[in-house]
Amino acid sequence: MRRQDFIFCIGFEGSTAIIDGRLLRRYGSRSTRELAEAGFFKQALSSAIFSGNPQELEEVRAIFNNGVRTPVGSVEELKRMFSVFGVPEGVKKVKLV
Question: Cα-flanking dihedrals φ and ψ of residue 8, to 5°?
Answer without folding.
Answer: -105, 20
